[in-house]
Amino acid sequence: MQKTDLKALSQPGLESFVRETGLPEFRARQLLHWIYEKRVRSIDEITELSKGLRQDLSGKAYISSLELLRRERSEDGTVKFLFGLEDGESIESVLIPDHSRLTLCISSQTGCAMKCRFCLTGKLKRKRNLKAHEIVDQVISVSRLMDPQKITNIVFMGMGEPLDNFGEVTDALGRMTELMKISKRRITLSTSGIVPKILELARTAPRVNLAVSLNATTDEVRDRIMPVNRKYPLGTLLDACRRFPLEPGRRITFEYVMLEGINDTEEDAKRLAKLLRGIPSKVNLIPFNEHEGSGFTRPSDERIGRFQQILLERNLTALIRKSKGRDIRAACGQLKAGCS
Ligand code: SAH
Ligand code: SF4
Question: Residue 125 C-alpha to ligand 2 middle, in angstroms?
């Protein structure tokens, strides 16, 4: 008989498993607590269960874990983890220390079908959606590895387009917020702009923070660098952002990768400020992280600074995101999970 992976089950799935195994209902709650809060990697570690019950359960089930294949530390303290999945695929997660924050950047797919021209992940041919437990397990595994340091924030900014894997990502969000008790305010989902899914997210998923990778101020440029724009152009995307329900005091983050000669002019900055009018927003300017053969370059610091200045003068919050972990290829758009 094939053993059941308890982590691969959703909450109702685990409840049925417990019922079918003939165990009382409260065992489901107990198992969920040990898997998601105590973060155990085997049934044997669940010391609250008797030895006999642990043995019995181990005959029928197991708790899967991502396999740590490699861990690299950058000179700036960023740590990149390469994890192996059960079918031999691999993914990367990146832990970024910043003052009092420890942010974990997680992946939602093994590659990405959106094919943004500036992004290395988008160049990977093979794409598979991660299962909810493979998404959540990045948080569980890294927090075990880093213990006693605590992860304070989670961002879906690793490999993949989270809204292109909607069901598993929202299941993962549910597990993180309800079972792992991570605050919604500390989780950010970043999307390239799959408009119908943004609206569905607002209707059906836990209210986590939203980040939108805008990266251009005209459809002409955005069409060129982000093919998703041909289907969901800027006007539709920003309209969805306007309708996105925000909790009081919350804002949408707009990411803007700065590409020399493409989207970095003063006119772009002015247009960006106009486009975002009426949307509670903050802008993260991300200087392009160069990679071989991309055909793009990063603008000078002065040019990026001038762009930021124009946004600030128009009362926008605009930060220049310092790239972390570039020496170990852990920065935005550099993840490719060991593929050559
Ligand atoms: N797919 C999602 C989340 C992962 S990409 C999305 O696109 O939003 C995370 C961020 O990295 C995006 O904002 C993207 O625009 C940015 N990015 C991609 N390639 C980059 C590169 N080479 N340099 C800097 N930022 C990059
Ligand atoms: Fe995919 Fe995001 Fe990279 Fe675009 S920027 S290819 S959506 S991971």
Answer: 13
